Amino acid sequence: MAAYGSTMPEVHETIAEFRAVLDQSRAQGQAIGLVPTMGYLHQGHASLLRQATVDNDLAVATIFVNPLQFAATEDLSTYPRDLDHDLALADECGIAHVFMPTVAEMYPEPILTTVSVAGITARFEGAARPEHFAGVATVVAKLLAIAGPCRAYFGEKDFQQLAVVRRMVADLSMPVQVVGCPIVRDHDGLALSSRNVYLSPGQRAAAPALYRGLRAASAMAATGERSVDAVLAPLRAAVVAAPGAVLDYAAVVQADTLEPAATVVGEQRVLVAVGFGATRLLDNVGLG
Ligand code: AMP
């Protein structure tokens, strides 16, 4: 066990040590809640950590910036990190143990076995970032294999990722209950994200347009409008009007399969992705 300052969570850097802690806790009949993260924790992560603490006897987090899910051109080496802050926040949220492996611990050899989820990953983030979801599914499968039977918490902020994880867990009969948690937003509606620190002051001022547009789309759907284009029109307009914003996609999808909707009806989700310079922002809202 490594000690970091005076913070409370125990930090484990090896798979064997972390697994032993969870095995021992399960042997005592405790329910375990696991929150996988890439660190640089904010109040969005904190909501998952708190939910895991409330629902379970033992709540644990993982902090691992997973190289497999970054393309060569992406921000792996500059991904923001602040371990002292992360551990203090995890402590506040009731997290007892943090698994923080090195890349060498997770991938001692170049990995030959990967997990890829078809269908759900074909569009949206999967189209924009072709290797991304195989990297995510592989590391989540590995973390779940290390942790063993548990509840695992993921944010609706990354709605497609949540769908991918749910499907992987179901398809592979993993002994895990996936819990989706609502999006936590800043005071002006911007969904919290570790990558928001990359935004310039001008981009940050323009970024709440995503949520404004999503709310307008959801209000349009609430009037009974069935046309996908009509529901998306105010979202597209809000993004177009935001200085520096470049729309990647805006779509209405089935909430479970992520298939694009033909008409607006039932359990659906509006997804949006916008580029501000090199920074990609995602957001979504539920319909119905
Ligand atoms: P990350 O550290 O970005 O990999 O995120 C770890 C987990 O926190 C993922 O399940 C995210 O969906 C979730 N998360 C990130 N931001 C938010 C947010 N603003 N609200 C809710 N969950 C979030």
> Are any ligands bound, and if so which?
adenosine monophosphate
> Which H/E pattern describes the elements?
EHEHEHEHHHEHEHHHEEE
CATH topology assignment of the largest domain = Rossmann fold
The low-confidence parts are: 1-5
Largest sheet: 6 strands, parallel
Give the rounded overall mean pLDDT: 96
Please state the second-level CATH architecture of the largest domain. 3-Layer(aba) Sandwich
Number of strands: 9
Helix content: 25-40%
Strand coverage percent? 15-25%
From the alpha carbons, calculate the radius of gyration and give it in angstroms. 19 Å
Classified in CATH, the superfamily of the largest domain is: HUPs
CATH class of the largest domain: Alpha Beta
Q: Count every helix, treating DSSP H or I runs of 4 or more residues as helices.
A: 10
Structurally, the number of domains stands at 2
The gross shape turns out to be globular
What is the terminal-to-terminal distance?
48 Å
